[in-house]
Amino acid sequence: ETLLESELFGYVKGSFTGANANRKGLFEAANKGTIFLDEIGEMSPSMQVKLLRVLQERKVRPVGAHEEIPVDARVIAATNRDLKQMSIEGSFREDLFYRISVIPINLPSLRERAEDISDLAYHFVGKFCEQTGRQLTISPKAMLALENYMWGGNVRELEHTIERAVALERTGEIHPERLPEHITNYNPDRINAEFDLPDEGLNLTAHLDNLEKTY
Prior knowledge:
The protein has 215 residues and is mainly alpha-helical. The chain has eleven helices and eight strands. Helix 3 packs across helix 5 and helix 6 (117-132) packs across helix 8.
């Protein structure tokens, strides 16, 4: 927490052990520009108070300083958590939530925009082929497997999957065999299918084991 405060707001010489010179914080460095705060939902309550004060007053006070420094920066914050629900539960300040939610941008998960998968896949193929000096394309069957998968890890998971496929493929085309088995074997219809209870009954433990193995 103290490290984050000094990184964001800066510090003056002698304010703590190791502070051998004055240092600008990221907010001051971003003056007349933009500062990006990633995973803002992980910020501690006390840091939330300090950040709210900076956003409201547009001034920062470096650690150990007595005077404030005016800053004018665009703030972009990102999170993968539900800040609205966190504010209701009390783990994220409601006033800070509304202060940073001036223009909210919701990025849907990859499984909600399957039409983007092929474009992203070819983008990553081009990226990793450029790094390795190779030329590859994606076979129709491999692309079908990519488009049918749920992508719980979103774009980052897709990127790592393509990186793996490019590294393993020895032909000029990425085939399904170069994709992880949990992607090529993924079948939501089979996993979620309803079934009739057989007359002789059902071994629930064995059935759940089979479902888990299939998933």
